[in-house]
């Protein structure tokens, strides 16, 4: 009964979305308010039905309804309650429902907030969003139906992929999908701008917050993914340039470019064409990412099952890319820039350069990701492109971007004078140079690390300088220090929100630099009572103990760790054996710290428990990556607060 | 004046889309097995019925060696009837189907075999040695071994009737 209800809800939702999309488009052409009204009702209906289907699927999971194939393949009777909920989106079908729910949610929010504000664009925005929803509902009803039945009904299910039994799995997909689907809103506005021919600044002003929100959730999704990789996978890293990580990273890169380039259009009415292209590119890349994960054309740890779904996604991707770029070509004459670049030394050109670098990074990631496909198509040989390629190409690009992060916000619009440059950059550059000397004196010999840290210090100094100057100006007008600072943040929230986000990125850079440059590790086999030493830590192997959990068996190693400073602690890395997995899963144990993390992974052991292999890692500064994520969050919140001052003309 | 060249922008996306479409013809898990063309690793197992089964004893027959598990749903569930049909159709022409159950419990495996009424020999790979020798990456995987005991083909994922027939037909036609 429940599965049929769910299936029915999705079918009705498909009909409503299709109707609503068409009705909104007709309303856009003819301006008939009653049709628009009706499309709006349809969209609300879609929202209710898709959320309903998600709830029903969750219910089937909680009740172990193994007559549903999707439930049977992704849980078993041993799956703990909490993970039965995350299992809902643990595989293909459920992840599409989650995706659809978020898109429906965004559509609802658009209806509530943009109906009046964005009157000229609204019908086309609604039509576009319902069009995208129609596609996802088509996938849910035909290519990957989550409610399809299984006969004979198995007594027990297969169980969730053990790697997904982690708290990160509740937040990682949700954040990532909020990011992915969030870019549908700016895309819908871009299509509306092209359809109506209003390609000026209006759509950009309206979508600024949406873009920031989508960008933020995408960033958060990537960071949580990194955290999951770090503390679950047991290889001690947070980023591996896996095709699917890349798939999420590419829209992040173009989305970041977009966040910056729209400011130029807002101020200088330049880059109309470029901004529309970036929106289309970003949205297409979110689809491409989904296509990549779900079509099975590229092997990856994240890859879902294969099937007809890839064909669906590719067809839709083709429709979006060709349709949107076709509209762009059609509106070509209206997209000519009205402004011109006055000087190479200006904020515009700093932002342009930032865009070029971000898109170049996006392109290299794209190229590296699809290269195996290209190679096989052209030469018939299988190759894989690994981390060295991506690092080699992207590290210089990212370092240049960090440098621009210091220059862009402080350099003058139009044409920077010597006075402007001297006033804003003499101190930060000096501080950066002093910093570099200091790092050298501290014994840092990696040129790359010194460069990264120096740039970080330089950018931090530009931000500090700007903030100090603005505060001092307020102090002169008689305010005391704290209210002056708080007032500054609130009154100029856009500017300082951006600065705080930049600080977050700097802190993440610090973490990445530290972990790449100074982490150490060793792998050693210990007898009971033996001690291994690494970077000041003494790790003693005390023994093994078995334990039977609800859905797996685990062997827990006991290690006493001392580092001469604090009291010795006991760490318990484990190995988990799931009946449905051919190889055991690592249960990492770690102690996080600001300076470094101690990270233990249990390897092979003898059956009698007298001997075990352990991988010991001391990972430096990794925690700052997560702290950077928190700062990023603060900055985003600040940036999207309602503005309290009139917009500068 | 209407320009033509802006339309080159959407057109430029077409080769890329074609490349992605080409990707469907490939299976990324279909890594060419280095074992193909080499002598198959010997194994000696005991079936669920308590009978011994070894590669040695099957020399001279075409052997279809299938690795499966009861939790491997849906692929193993899809191919179990295919294997049973194939076995019934070809057993008289010197074809032997052997199932190797890996990473499984005895109860669940026996329920699986009852459900599909499997009559060809199935054995448990108790310590996983056979699946290691054959480089099994995931279930189901099927190896087609010729009369001389060489691995001639490896199939990843559920075997269809057509797969079974085409592979076995060629091997049976070879002189022994």
What's the layout of helices and strands?
The complex is a heterodimer of chains A (649) and B (176).
Chain A: H1 2-30, H2 33-62, H3 69-74, H4 81-86, H5 92-117, H6 122-143, H7 168-182, H8 184-196, H9 202-233, H10 243-268, H11 272-295, H12 309-330, H13 347-378, H14 387-407, H15 418-441, H16 447-476, H17 481-491, H18 493-518, E1 520-527, E2 531-534, E3 537-548, E4 553-562, E5 569-571, E6 574-577, E7 585-587, E8 589-591, E9 596-605, E10 611-620, H19 623-640
Antiparallel strand pairs in A: 1-10, 2-3, 3-4, 4-5, 4-6, 6-7, 8-9, 9-10
Helix pairs in contact in A: 1-2, 1-6, 2-5, 2-6, 5-6, 5-7, 6-8, 7-9, 8-9, 8-11, 9-10, 9-19, 10-11, 10-13, 11-12, 13-14, 14-16, 15-16, 16-17, 16-18, 17-18, 18-19
Chain B: H1 8-22, E1 44-46, E2 52-54, E3 62-68, H2 75-90, E4 95-101, H3 106-115, E5 122-124, H4 129-133, E6 141-145, E7 151-156, H5 161-173
Parallel strand pairs in B: 3-4, 4-5
Antiparallel strand pairs in B: 1-2, 3-6, 6-7
How would you describe this protein?
The complex is a heterodimer of chains A (649) and B (176). Chain A is of the alpha+beta class. Among the domains of chain A are: 165 residues, no CATH class; 118 residues, no CATH class; 102 residues, Tick-borne Encephalitis virus Glycoprotein, domain 1 (Sandwich). Chain A is built from 19 helices and 10 strands. Chain B is an alpha/beta fold. Chain B has a single domain, classed as Glutaredoxin. A 5-stranded mixed β-sheet of chain B has the order 5-4-3-6-7, covered by helices on one side. In chain B, strand 6 and strand 7 form a beta hairpin. The model of chain B has no long low-confidence stretch (mean pLDDT 87). Classes of the chains: A alpha+beta (649), B alpha/beta (176). The interface between A and B is large, with 41 and 37 residues.
């Amino acid at each position: 009964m429940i599965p049929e209800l769910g299936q029915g809800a999705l079918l009705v939702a498909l009909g409503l979305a299709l109707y609503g999309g068409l009705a909104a488009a007709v309303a856009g052409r003819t301006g008939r308010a009653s049709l628009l009204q009706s499309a709006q009702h349809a969209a609300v209906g879609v929202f209710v039905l898709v959320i309903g289907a998600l709830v029903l699927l969750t219910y089937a999971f909680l009740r172990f309804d193994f007559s549903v194939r999707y439930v049977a393949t992704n849980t078993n009777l041993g799956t703990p309650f909490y993970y039965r909920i995350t299992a809902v989106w643990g595989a293909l079908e459920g992840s599409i429902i989650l995706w659809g729910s978020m898109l429906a949610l965004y559509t609802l929010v658009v209806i509530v907030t943009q109906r009046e504000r964005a009157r000229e664009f609204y019908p086309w925005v609604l039509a576009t969003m319902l069009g995208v929803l129609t596609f996802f509902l088509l996938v849910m009803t035909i290519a990957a139906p989550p409610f399809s039945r299984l006969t004979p009904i198995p007594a027990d299910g297969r169980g969730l992929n053990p790697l997904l039994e982690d708290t990160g799995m509740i937040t990682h997909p949700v954040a990532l999908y909020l990011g992915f689907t969030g870019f549908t809103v700016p895309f819908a506005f871009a299509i509306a701008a092209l359809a109506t021919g209003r390609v000026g600044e209006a759509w950009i002003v309206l979508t600024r917050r949406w873009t920031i929100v989508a960008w933020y959730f995408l960033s958060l999704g990537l960071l949580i993914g990194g955290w999951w990789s770090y503390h679950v996978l047991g290889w001690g890293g947070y980023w591996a340039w896996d095709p699917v990580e890349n798939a999420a990273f590419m829209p992040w890169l173009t989305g970041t470019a977009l966040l910056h380039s729209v400011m130029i259009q807002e101020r200088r009415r330049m880059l109309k064409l470029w901004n529309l292209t970036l929106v289309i590119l970003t949205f297409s890349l979110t689809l491409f990412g989904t296509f990549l994960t779900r079509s099975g054309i590229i092997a990856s740890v994240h890859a879902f099952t294969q099937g007809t779904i890839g064909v669906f996604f590719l067809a839709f991707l083709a429709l979006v890319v060709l349709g949107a770029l076709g509209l762009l070509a059609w509106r070509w004459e209206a997209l000519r820039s009205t402004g011109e670049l006055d000087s190479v030394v200006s904020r515009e050109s700093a932002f342009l350069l930032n865009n070029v670098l971000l898109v170049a990074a996006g392109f290299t990631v794209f190229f590296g990701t699809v290269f195996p496909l290209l190679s096989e198509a052209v030469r018939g040989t299988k190759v894989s492109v690994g981390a060295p390629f991506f690092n080699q190409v992207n590290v210089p690009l990212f370092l240049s971007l960090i440098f621009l992060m210091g220059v862009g916000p402080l350099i003058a619009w139009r044409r920077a004078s010597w006075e402007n440059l001297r006033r804003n950059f003499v101190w930060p550059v000096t501080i950066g140079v002093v910093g570099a000397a200091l790092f050298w004196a501290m014994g840092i010999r990696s040129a790359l690390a010194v460069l990264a840290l120096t740039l970080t210090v330089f950018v931090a100094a530009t931000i500090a300088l700007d903030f100090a100057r603005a505060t001092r100006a307020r102090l002169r007008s008689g305010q005391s220090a704290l209210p002056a600072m708080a007032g500054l943040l609130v009154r100029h929230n856009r500017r300082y929100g951006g600065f705080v986000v930049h600080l977050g990125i700097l802190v993440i850079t610090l973490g990445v630099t530290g972990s790449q440059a100074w982490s150490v590790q060793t792998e050693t086999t210990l007898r009971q009572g033996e001690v291994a030493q690494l970077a000041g830590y003494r790790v003693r192997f005390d023994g093994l103990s078995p334990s039977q959990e609800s859905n797996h068996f685990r062997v827990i190693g006991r290690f006493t760790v001392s580092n001469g400073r604090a009291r010795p602690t006991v760490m318990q890395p484990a190995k988990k054996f799931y009946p449905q997995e051919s190889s055991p899963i690592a249960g990492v144990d770690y102690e996080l710290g600001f300076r470094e993390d101690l990270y233990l992974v249990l390897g092979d052991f003898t059956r009698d428990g007298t001997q075990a292999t352990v991988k010991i890692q001391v990972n430096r500064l990794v925690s700052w990556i997560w702290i950077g994520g928190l700062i990023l969050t603060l900055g985003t919140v600040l940036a999207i607060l309602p503005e309290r001052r009139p917009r500068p003309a | 004046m209407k320009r033509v060249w802006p339309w080159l922008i959407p057109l430029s996306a077409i080769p890329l889309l074609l490349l992605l479409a080409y990707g469907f013809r490939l299976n990324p898990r279909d890594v060419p097995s280095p074992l193909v063309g080499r002598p198959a690793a010997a194994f000696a197992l005991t079936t669920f019925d308590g009978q011994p089964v070894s590669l040695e004893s099957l020399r001279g027959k075409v052997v279809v060696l299938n690795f499966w598990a009861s939790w491997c749903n849906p692929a193993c569930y899809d191919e179990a009837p295919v294997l049973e049909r194939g076995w019934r159709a070809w057993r008289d022409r010197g074809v032997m189907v052997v199932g190797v159950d890996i990473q499984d419990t005895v109860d669940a495996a026996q329920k699986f075999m009852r459900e599909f009424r499997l009559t060809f020999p199935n054995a448990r790979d108790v310590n996983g040695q056979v699946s290691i020798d054959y480089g099994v990456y995931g279930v189901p995987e099927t190896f087609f071994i010729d009369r001389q005991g060489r691995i001639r083909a490896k199939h990843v994922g559920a075997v269809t009737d057509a797969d079974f027939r085409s592979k076995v037909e060629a091997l049976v036609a070879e002189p022994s």
